[in-house]
Specification:
The chain is built from 4 helices and 12 strands, in the order ββββαβαββαβαββββ. It has helices at residues 47-59, 67-72, 111-122, 133-140; strands at residues 4-11, 15-17, 35-36, 44-45, 60-66, 86-90, 105-108, 126-130, 146-152, 160-161, 177-181, 184-190. The strands form 3 sheets. It has an 8-stranded mixed sheet with strand order 7-6-5-8-1-9-12-11, sandwiched between helices. Strand 11 (177-181) and strand 12 (184-190) form a beta hairpin.
Length: 193
């Protein structure tokens, strides 16, 4: 079974979006480089970021997101971003009216069930959990193996926290990867058990 990895770009003060759910400059590093990160040609990063991010993206089998993110993106029009095979949406509501039942999205109540579903779908590939409220809940449940952050040099001041509403202490190991890209610092931590 693959690792469960909590991941997102984050401001230096710990936010993944502002109070209006807007990322502001958090994703500028994804369009400010000269090396295409995917086939779309819209994402271009520095060579250093590409060498770190692309192999990680290639290992992701499933991404877990909350219903709020799903709704904000209009469900990516039924096509998981980044060429992923499946997405698991943590929600207590059914799929939207008119949703294509053949789309590779799985609507699951609760983070434990979401991780179990994602691991089954991913096999030995990585299960990625979007940072924020759902990611924090998965961390609090003791189900996260690794935390990855793309730290962007901006202070948002307030907004949506990387770890959501986690109110307990969780220890991480020392970072085992620290990569400096252009306008981003890539960090990777194992979760201490």
């Amino acid at each position: 079974m693959g690792d469960v990895v909590m991941y997102s770009s984050v401001s230096v003060d710990g936010f993944v979006a502002d109070d209006n759910d807007q990322p502001g400059p958090l994703f500028d590093w994804l369009t400010g480089g000269d090396v295409p990160l995917d086939e779309s040609g819209q994402l271009k990063v520095s060579r250093t970021s590409y060498d770190y991010i692309r192999p990680y993206w290639d290992q992701i089998g499933v991404t877990i997101v909350g219903r709020h993110v799903f709704d904000m993106t209009d469900g990516w029009d039924g096509k998981p971003p980044g060429g992923m095979d499946h997405m698991v949406v943590v929600t207590h509501r059914p799929a939207p009216e008119g949703w294509d039942p053949g789309a590779p999205f799985h609507f699951v109540a609760g983070v434990e069930a979401a991780v179990a579903t994602a691991q089954e779908l991913a096999g030995d590939r990585i299960v990625e959990v979007a940072a924020g409220d759902v990611g924090g809940q998965v961390l609090a449940a003791g189900l996260v193996d690794e935390v990855r952050m793309d730290v962007v040099p901006v202070v948002l001041g307030s907004g949506k926290r990387y770890f959501g509403s986690v109110h307990a202490q969780h220890l991480l190991e020392d970072p085992d990867v620290v990569v400096r890209g252009d306008r981003v610092l890539h960090l990777r931590y194992r979760v201490r058990r």
